[in-house]
Fold this sequence. Notes:
InterPro entries: Amidase_dom, AS_sf. This is Probable amidase At4g34880. The model is unreliable at 1-6 (pLDDT under 50). This protein has helices spanning 2-15, 33-42, 47-65, 75-89, 133-140, 153-156, 188-195, 212-217, 252-262, 270-276, 315-329, 343-371, 381-390, 403-409, 416-440, 453-459, 488-502, and strands at 68-71, 101-105, 144-149, 166-167, 171-172, 201-206, 221-224, 244-249, 298-302, 333-338, 444-448, 463-470, 476-482. It contains 17 helices and 13 strands. Helix 1 (2-15) packs across helix 3, helix 3 packs antiparallel against helix 4 and helix 12 crosses helix 14 (403-409). The strands form two sheets. The protein has an eleven-stranded mixed beta sheet with strand order 1-3-2-6-8-7-12-13-11-9-10, with helices on both faces. The two termini are 20 Å apart. By secondary structure, the chain is an alpha/beta fold. It has a domain at 33-288: Amidase signature (AS) domain (Amidase signature (AS) enzymes, Alpha-Beta Complex). The longest helix is centred in the last third of the chain and has 29 residues, at 343-371. The chain is 41% helix and 13% strand.
Amino acid sequence: MASLLSFIAPLLLLLSPPMAISGNGFEIQEATIEAIQQAFKEGKLTSRQLVQYYSDRIHALNPLVRAVIEVNPDAIRLAELADEERNNAGDRHLGWLHGIPILLKDNIATKDQLNTTAGSFALLGSVVPRDAGVVRRLRSAGAIILGKASLSEWAEFRSFSVPDGWCGRSGQGKNPYVLSADPCGSSSGSAIAVAASMATVALGTETDGSIICPSSSNSVVGIKPTAGLASRAGVIPISPRQDNVGPICRTVSDAVHVLDVIVGYDPRDENATSEAAVFIPRNGYERFLKTDGLQGKRIGVLSKGYFDLFPSTSVRAITFQRHFNTMREKGAILLDNLVIPKASTIEDFIGKYEDEVLRAEFKEAINAYLSELTYSPVRSLADLITFNNKHKDEEKIGEYGQDIFLNSQNSSGVGPTERAAIAKMRVLSKQGLERLMKKEKLDAVVTPEAFFTSIMAIGGYPGISVPAGYGRDGSPFGLCFTGLKGFEPRLIEIAYAFEQATNVRKPPSFKP
C-alpha cells in the first residue's frame, strides 16, 4: 500500500493545474527569477509561499524522481527573513537572487543543518568548517538554500559500474521527461529538480560533462564556466585542475543571474580564481542577454565525429538542421563541417590519460578535503574504501563496486608521468580548439548534447547547453555552445538569442 501511495501522489500533483497563489493569480511552476521578483514587488508572492510550494512539490515528486536528498529545515525561517528584508527595503532592488530558493548539488558544502556527503553514507554526519565559496556568495545575495540535490554518488567517481544518477543516500534519480531514460550525471539531481520545478534554480559541478550532460538530458540550461571563474573552495573535489561550479536552470536568463552572483576571486581557491578573474566583465553578465545576440556571430559547426553520428533522417539530425537555419536567419554566420586540428590525436590522448590523471589528482584532493573537516567518520580515501567494504551488504551501499576508488588509492598521486600528461593536454588544447577558433575567427563552436565535454574539460573552456528538442520517445536533447576561456559574454549572447528564437523547452511529462 505504501509503495502504491508513493506512486499515486506524484501523479495527482502532475494532473493538477499549476499552483497559483490564492487570489493573486501568479503561477509559480515554471516561473523565472525575473517573474518571481516582479511578483514579490507587486505583492502577489512571498518567499515563504515560494519555499512552501517547492517543499510540497519535493514531498510529492521526490519518491518518483529521487532528485533531492535533504530539504533545509531552516528554509521557511530564511524565507520569512527575506520577506522582512524586502518589506523594509522600499523601492530598493535587493538583487535578482534575493529571496530565491536554490538547490545545491550535495558535494557543495554548507555550514548549516544540511549534510554535505557527495551522496554517500560515509560522510553522513560529517561537519564542514565553513560554507563553500559559492554558497557564501549566494547567501550574501539573499538566496535561500533550499536543500541538497542528489547526484551520481561521489560525482560519478566511485565506480565505472554505477549508473548515471545513482546515489547511495537517495536511490536512482529519474529523468522527469521519460522515467526510464538516462538522466545523465553527475549533477543529475540538480537538473531533474529544476526541470520538474522542485526549485527555482540549482547549482551543479562539472569535472568532465557533469553539468552539460544532465542539462541536455533533462531539457534545462547549464553553464559550465571557464575553469576558476567560480570558486571550488568547499566543494568535494575530484580534480583542482578540472573541477567547476555552475548554474543549472530552466532559462538562460536565470542561469546568467546565478552566474553573476557566484563568480569572483576567493582566497581559498586563490590560484584558479585570481587567474580567471580577469575574464569577468565589470558590469556583470546580465547585459549580454540580447535577443539579437546571434547577429554577426561566427559559429563553427563540428560535424565530423559529432553531428555526423546521427543518421540524416533521424529526429536529432533534422532538428539540428532546422536550428542551424534559424541561427542563420537571426544573422549568425555558420561555418559548416569544421574539423579540430589533430582531433584524433587529442581524443586518443584523452582516452588514454585523462582518467589516469584524474585518479591521481583525486587521491591527493580528497585526502586534503577530508582532513580539513571539523568532524568526519572518515579521514582519507583509504577510510572510504574501508567503509564501503564494511557496509557492502547493506541496502544501497554494496549494490555497486568502488573500482575507481581502488585504482585511485593504488596510484602514487600526481608524479612525473601525470605532470607530463597534464602539460601535453595543455599543448593539445592550444593546437586543437584554440588554433581552429583563432584561424576561423570563431565566437563559438556548436556540438550536439554532451559529446564535446572532454575537450572542454582539459582546456578549461566554458560551455552552455540549451534545450534543442525531444526524441521520438520524448527524451530531451540539447545543443552545446563552447568558446575559449573568458568567452562567456559571447556564449551568453548566442545561447540566449537561440533560446528566444526557438523556444524549445516544455515542462516534463513523466512518461514511464
